[in-house]
Amino acid sequence: MATTTLEPRAGTFSRSWVIDWLTTVDHKKIGILYIVNSFLFFFAAGILALFIRSELAVPGLQFLDQDTYNQAFTMHGTIMIFLFVVPVLAGFGNYIVPLQLGAPDMAFPRINALSFWFLPLGGLLIFSGYLFGGAAAEGWTGYAPLTDDTYAQGVGTDLWIIGLTLVGTASILGSINFIATIFKMRAPGMTLFRMPIFVWTILVTATLIMLATPVLTAGLIALFIDRNYGGSFFDPSVGGNPVLWQHIFWFFGHPEVYIVILPAMGVVSEILPVFSRKPLFGYKAFVFATIGIGLLSWTVWAHHMFTTGAVFLPFFSFMTALIAIPTGIKMFNWLATMWRGKLMFTTAMLFAVGFISMFLIGGISGVMLASPPIDFHVQDTYFVVAHLHYVFFGGSVFGVFAATYYWFPKMFGRKLNEPLGKVHFWLHFIGFNLAFFPMHQLGLSGMPRRISDYAANPEWTILNLVSTVGAFMIAVSVIPFLINVIATFINGEPAGDDPWEGNTLEWATTSPPPPYNFDRLPPIHSERPLFFLTHGHGHAAERPEDLEEEQVHDERPADVERREDPLV
Amino acid sequence: MLRIGLPLLLLGLLAGCMLPPEPVTETGREVFNLYLVVLALALVVFVGVEGFILYAIVRYRRKPGDDVLPEQHHGNNTIEIIWTAIPTVIVFILFGFSMFTLARVEARSDDPGVRIAVEGFQWQWIFRYEDGPTVTGSAAEPPVLAVPIGEPVRLELETLDVNHAFYVPQFLIKRDLINVPNDLLDNELEFTITEAGTYAGQCAEFCGTAHADMTFVVEAMDRAAYDEYIAAIAAGEDAPGGDTGDCGTTIELAAVESLLYDTDAIEAPAGEDFCIEFTNNDSVPHDVGIIETDYNGDDVAPGESITYVVPAMEAGDYTFYCTLHPQAMVGDLTVTE
């Protein structure tokens, strides 16, 4: 019959799951691809970290030669930042943001797929240097003129440039997609100040990516021209300026730090209220603090260059110190959220509280580094290595694991095993502190970073050994995590739609959500639509502005219908 | 809750010994004192916040079966203004102290007691004393920077290739060496050492393969000893590089621009000592070594020459090379009867 032939093919035509995942434009599948891809690169870069720590366990060169060591820390830094932390958070953003907004998908699903597929390609290009005579070995910051063709002759550095350009392009496309989604795809009733805090942090992050990454891309292309076509942007022997590279790199690189930390702050700000059973204290202050950090991030890049003698120290020192203010506000907001709450220590909550307590240390050492005379002493030492790992690892990676335990039930319909999760957390937490806390002292006593061997004094030897033990403990902590994930897929506890009594819209649909996410949406009167659905509107009396708007909404149909399909 | 408390307590104790080395310069002492102020502020914040977190974890843990919602606090303007003020005050204190110390650290004397040009290259240092000798070294024998105590020492930092950084931990300061015209950046470092002693130093800016080998030693001594020391090196350097009277055969060899020897093949007689008269016309230091016999001649700074006396060798084919640039500078040495 004619009606049969007119039915959509999707219902009757079954594709292989491989083709399905390779060609998907569903934000949820792309989000999972992002996350899985990022974790694979995380493990690869983690193994490189173990090489580094093994070499540094005791004085002398034992396992690696100098060049191999330099390649290891360069690849470790590059991959961890560009192929793990940034994309894994983008992956959670991809999965969660449309759900939290009550949207059926991202604004541009095909661009979404494109920006994902650049990532494995770019990452493999960066790694492929190992197949062509050695990977890039100039540090993830790629300082000129060391990256010039005179000093870095291998093709590894060119592959590093090309790979990073692709990854950067992916980030730019993704960020535009996020911004369009957040501004144009919010469900009816979801005003900007009713958006979940995670969406806010993704919005600010995406803006930073959109404005900062092109700067790096331009610098990388200039460097590529210098290396291959006789350019003279950064090569001093033909009139270029190596300091220019540092300006370009850090003009991107410091916003990058906030690109990496803001979404993790957003994750924590979702999890703390749910497991404290209270709203986030000072929602608007938190939003303004996030925007404030985003704005300040453009004014602080040269604090990475205090020892060059080429920058105006008071300005950059002052602006850098100012960042402590919005960050401090956030810290107090988190503490006040826990204050007089009813705290439930799920693994997600443990990682969120771990984030606060560890990020605090990274924040404090950051303020210390903002003081130029102190920076003169500890710049380019292990103190900086400790600081950046307390921010990236103690901050962002704790946030990533918190997000994993928190949203895994939504993504796969099953809860990760809690006892195994706690084993994971404690190994991770203790290993992290053993690995990175001693580095503060190493740096203070003068051990430079990026050296393959160090002076055999007793203090440095013991501290390095402790750090290496900690690094292997972190590696071991991954085992219960992987077992947990596999065991949960085989025989995990079914999660139901809303296992945590969540506040936000992703918990209003099934786990995992169907294509296009929602059959219908609850009314949205605040940043916690689900909380108000469960517990009634009595609590809204504390916020008179909500009551007024509530009356407006009461004139609408109770169940807001889904908007038009944006894919057309 | 000991299980979070214990590691944090340990962290707190560890922080108690988080200090830089005992400073040995006047400005190093200033930085050390600034650091103490900052560390004290940091510890107050650390203990306060971590203490609060621990308290909340213990005090507000949800009891099993407790389904009553806690009071839903959305915010409180007064308290939020107060806690915006707290970090603001800390920031201003920190900034004020920092600028005060910075002015002292950056101060330059009109007439430093000693001026030394410090040149970094892949992967060693050259120290050129004003009106004095030039010194360099190797990974095995780090170069010595001799300086007098009690008077300002001015270093003029310059790189011959990539970026480096001059760093002596006990001075609590470092400064990058960047290849940029002098008027575009401040490439000088000045300090006054207060205590005689030997202080290890190292390149702190990653500079390629053998970055870790770029170590040096600062020997700080009183003025009389310093003058004597410099005179001794100057005398040693002026003496002939070897007893040329023993040279049966003298081979001339030169290094030329951008990491090359002027020839890639030399010949020498077997069974007797011979000499290599080596001139460095390149812009970075070079030397001559022989791979098969492990012979390794002294480094020669740009523009200098030396006469190496090479011990007798058996007939055969050998390879000579620059031990500082083994990949770029190699050649054949043929020893014949």
Structural class of chain B: alpha+beta
CATH topology of the largest domain in chain B: Immunoglobulin-like
Give me the secondary-structure category of chain A: mainly alpha
Q: What is the mean pLDDT of chain A?
A: 90
Strand content of chain A: under 5%
Secondary structure: helix percent of chain B: 25-40%
Mean of all residue-level pLDDT scores of chain B: 86
Order of helices and strands of chain B: HHHEEEEEEEEEEHEEEEEEEEE
Strand count of chain B: 19
What does this 3D model show about the protein?
- The complex is a heterodimer of chains A (568) and B (337).
- Chain A has 568 residues and is mainly α.
- Chain A has a single domain (29-554), classed as Cytochrome c oxidase-like, subunit I domain (Cytochrome C Oxidase, Chain A, Up-down Bundle), CATH 1.20.210.
- Helices cover 65% and strands 1% of the residues of chain A.
- Chain A has a two-stranded antiparallel sheet with strand order 1-2.
- In chain A, α9 (283-296) runs antiparallel to α11 (324-338).
- Chain A is globular and about 70 Å long.
- In chain A, 62% of the residues are buried.
- Mean pLDDT of chain A is 90; it is low at 1-8 and 538-568.
- Chain B has 337 residues and is α+β, with helices and mostly antiparallel strands.
- Chain B folds into three domains: 2-58 and 79-106, no CATH class; 114-238, Sandwich (Immunoglobulin-like); 244-336, Immunoglobulin-like.
- Helices cover 28% and strands 31% of the residues of chain B.
- In chain B, β1 and β2 (124-129) form a beta hairpin.
- In chain B, α1 (2-15) runs antiparallel to α2 and α2 (26-59) runs antiparallel to α3 (77-106).
- The chains are: A mainly alpha (568), B alpha+beta (337).
- Chains A and B meet through α4, α8, α9, α10 and α11 of A and α1, α2, α3, β7 and β9 of B.
